[in-house]
Structures are given as structure tokens and as C-alpha cells.
Write a structure and sequence with these properties.
Blueprint (H helix, E strand, L loop, with lengths): L1 H17 L3 H8 L15 H7 L8 H13 L13 H9 L48 H12 L21 H12 L14
Helix pairs in contact: 5-7, 6-7
The structure holds heme C (HEC).
Amino acid sequence: MIKKLAITLACAWASLTFADSPSEVLRASMVDKNQATLDRIEQDDVQAFCSKPRAERGDLDTMNAVRERAMAGIEHPADGVYLGDWVSGGEIANNGRGLQYSDNPADPNGGNCYACHQLDPREMAYGTLGPSLTNYGARGQSDVVVQYTWTKLWNTHAYNTCSHMPRFGAQGILTEQQLKDVMAYLLDPNSPVNQPMDAAD
Ligand code: HEC
């Protein structure tokens, strides 16, 4: 009984001590390792906003201000060309490596799209946190579709304030050329993403 009480008190003390500084708890239990450095624990404005319980996020204007800051930071391709090579885009979508302590920073990062999305309908392994993007190219290549897709990939929070998708452009995860290639993987009519399954598959 006494032992149980002591444990309960110790837990209560620990939670009181650390209650206001979760980043201190994380900091105390982690170390810098190669490119995975502890500055990643510092939240930026979107992360700080979206980490709050919904009831504490304030009114719609506050949420829109966060979203509009994301929209204001979007950078479009300098040469005005949005679509690259879908073959390379497929490799990027399939590659889940990059930015971890065990990855070589000299290697290109992947987009890890399949972790959350179905794309090529012949690919068996994919996550379902995000919607299926199979046949995404059926949307065509109008300016609206191209600009929307680029913006979504550059900084998803520009449309959905507390989106769970990584900010591939804004966070420097993918280069401009890699983003163009992923765009082609989504939108090019020849990309496997846009080839329906047939009896031969
Ligand atoms: C960690 C999970 C995650 C990863 C990784 C991810 N996404 Fe997403 N994505 C989402 C979620 C969740 C949504 C839907 C909610 C939203 O819009 O934020 C989404 C939405 C989208 C949309 C908009 C869909 C529509 O119908 O308009 C596109 C396009 C997209 N993702 C492309 C990609 C591409 C390309 C990659 C890889 C470079 C990728 N995503 C990686 C989670 C992810």
C-alpha cells in the first residue's frame, strides 16, 4: 500500500514538474545524432497552433491567419514550368528515406507519398491516412489544377490549416525539380498513376 502510494506520488510529482515544458522532457531523453538535431523539437507557428486542443485554437479568423501565412510563403517554379519527369517522380513517391539520423544528407530525400496515399493502382503497399490519388490526372492540367497541386505539395497548410501532410517545398524536403517530377507523376496521362488496371494486371 505504502509502496503504491509512493509510486503514485512520484508520478504526480513528475507530471507536475514537467507539466509546462514537454519539450524539456523530450530534450532530456534525446540527443543530437548526425542531421537529426534537437532544434527539431522547437515548434513553428503552424505546429504550435495545431498542437493546441481544438477548443483552445481561437476563432476562425485566427485559424485563417495561420493558413494565409502558409499561402503567402508559396514559391512557384522560377521558369514557370510545373511538370517534370514522371519516371523520376515515381521513384521519389516510393522513396521513404531522408532526413533521419541514419540517412546520408548527400543523398536526395524521398517524398514517401505511398506511406499515406494510393497512387499507381498496381502498387500493393500503401497507407490510407490520405485519400487515394489514383487517376489524379483525370483532373486535367488547367492552370487551376496545376497551381492547386503545386501549392498543396509546397505547403499543404495553405489549404488545410492543420493538415497531416508534410510541407515538401516549405520545409526543404524536396527540391524544386523533385516537386516538378512528382507533379508529373500525378498529372501526366502516361504516368502509371493514370493507367487503369486491366485484365492483364
Ligand atoms: C503523412 C501522410 C502524408 C504523406 C507522406 C503525403 N500526404 Fe498527401 N495528403 C495527406 C492527407 C492526410 C491529405 C488529405 C488532407 C489534407 O488535404 O490535408 C493529403 C492530400 C493530398 C493531396 C490533395 C488531394 C486532393 O484530392 O486534392 C495531394 C495532391 C497529395 N496529398 C499529394 C501527396 C504527394 C504527391 C505526396 C508525396 C510527395 C504526399 N501527398 C505525401 C497525407 C500525406
